[in-house]
């Protein structure tokens, strides 16, 4: 059994491994240094020790994987549900507002209770459920390892979003994916509820600027940012084909965790495109020598038939053939 811990939980890894070995008799291996982001399941490292199952502890991006069975232990941080309900009521005075409830994975355990409490007075509230498998029931929308069932005649333009959690990559992804939806959050650590989105337009303009830089680039470096997310090989092949059709040259690079010094060795590359999980795709490239874009941004830059939709698509699997888009890009996808 392979045990994968995020950096902040490694201090507890030895005691947990010992207790599991005593309880099960199975051999435990601790994966101390992940190949890429700690939110991703490191199936490659697990295979090096011949693991038959992997247990992932801490925050996770919930990207689907296909090599090993995976179990998640998120941990459940405390939330004052009464204060959260009060904050929601202050932020949504109109009780007929359609709202989707999201949360960080460490607060997901309270969404069921929160939905039940709010449903008494807010009949159009829908809570997301964690879903890191591709077998999603018909009619459900799935994004970022979460599935939910909104009114498809109203989604997404008429909906507001409410997020339980603090600032981080999950919140940023949600804001940039649905920038036209009113967005509110409740931070359990501070007890503060607020309206989000003050810097969304600035962030989106920066992403559009990067698309223009990608259009002008002649040499593209394709960065392999994951070896575990399902269909990453198909995404790499798709990107190579798109770049070739645009008359650009590409190089494929795999170097683990990225930093400016590593990428600074490839001065002939005009721009990089990162194939990674959704939470690691929107990399701030201001400290790097060359810009770094997402696969969707590179496809918009290379394909004249594609127009930028004014939002970010960070799950590269959504660019592959076979995904149905009844709600339009950015609205969500169904299987």
TrEMBL record:
Q: Any keyword Iron-sulfur?
A: yes
State its cofactor.
[4Fe-4S] cluster
Q: Which InterPro entries match?
A: DHP2, DPH1/DPH2, DPH1/DPH2_1, DPH1/DPH2_3
Instruction: Name the UniProt key words of this record, in alphabetical order.
Output: Iron, Iron-sulfur, Metal-binding
Its domain of life reads Eukaryota
Question: What is an example of a GO molecular function annotated in this UniProt entry?
Answer: iron-sulfur cluster binding
The pathway noted for it is: Protein modification; peptidyl-diphthamide biosynthesis
Q: Which Pfam families match?
A: Diphthamide_syn
Q: Which residues cross the membrane?
A: none
Instruction: Say if the entry is tagged with keyword Iron.
Output: yes
What processes in GO biological process is this protein linked to? Answer: protein histidyl modification to diphthamide
Q: Which residues form a coiled coil?
A: none
Described function? Required for the first step of diphthamide biosynthesis, a post-translational modification of histidine which occurs in elongation factor 2. DPH1 and DPH2 transfer a 3-amino-3-carboxypropyl (ACP) group from S-adenosyl-L-methionine (SAM) to a histidine residue, the reaction is assisted by a reduction system comprising DPH3 and a NADH-dependent reductase. Facilitates the reduction of the catalytic iron-sulfur cluster found in the DPH1 subunit.
Q: Which PANTHER family match?
A: 2-(3-AMINO-3-CARBOXYPROPYL)HISTIDINE SYNTHASE SUBUNIT 2, DIPHTHAMIDE BIOSYNTHESIS PROTEIN
Membership in a protein family: Belongs to the DPH1/DPH2 family. DPH2 subfamily.
Q: What is this protein called?
A: 2-(3-amino-3-carboxypropyl)histidine synthase subunit 2
- Species: Aquarana catesbeiana
């Amino acid at each position: 059994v392979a045990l994968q811990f995020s950096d902040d939980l490694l201090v507890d890894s030895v005691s947990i491994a010992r207790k599991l070995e005593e309880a099960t008799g199975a051999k435990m291996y601790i994966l101390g240094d992940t190949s890429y982001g700690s939110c991703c399941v490191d199936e490659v490292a697990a295979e090096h020790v011949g693991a038959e199952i992997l247990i992932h502890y801490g925050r996770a991006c919930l990207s689907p994987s296909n090599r090993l069975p995976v179990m998640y232990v998120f941990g459940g941080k405390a939330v004052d549900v009464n204060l959260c309900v009060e904050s929601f009521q202050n932020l949504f005075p109109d009780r007929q507002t359609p709202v989707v409830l999201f949360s960080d994975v460490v607060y997901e355990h309270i969404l069921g209770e929160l939905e039940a409490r709010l449903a008494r007075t807010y009949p159009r509230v829908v809570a997301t459920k964690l879903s890191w498998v591709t077998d999603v029931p018909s009619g459900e929308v799935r994004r970022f390892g979460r599935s939910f069932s909104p009114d498809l005649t109203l989604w997404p333009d008429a909906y507001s979003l409410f997020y339980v959690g603090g600032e981080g990559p999950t919140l940023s992804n949600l804001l940039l994916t649905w920038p036209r939806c009113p967005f509110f959050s409740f931070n359990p650590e501070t007890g503060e509820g607020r309206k989000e989105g003050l810097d969304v337009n600035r962030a989106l303009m920066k992403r559009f600027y990067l698309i223009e830089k990608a259009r002008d680039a002649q040499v593209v470096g394709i960065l392999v940012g994951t070896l575990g997310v399902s269909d990453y090989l198909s995404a790499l092949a798709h990107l190579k084909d798109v770049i070739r059709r645009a008359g650009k040259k590409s190089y494929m690079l795999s170097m683990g965790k990225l930093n400016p010094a590593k990428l600074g060795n490839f001065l002939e590359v005009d721009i990089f495109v990162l194939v990674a999980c959704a939470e690691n795709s929107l990399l701030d490239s201001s400290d790097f020598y060359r810009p770094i874009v997402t696969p969707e941004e590179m496809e918009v830059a290379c394909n004249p038939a594609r127009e930028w939709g004014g939002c970010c698509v960070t799950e590269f699997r959504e660019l592959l053939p076979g995904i149905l888009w009844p709600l339009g890009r950015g609205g969500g996808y169904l299987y």
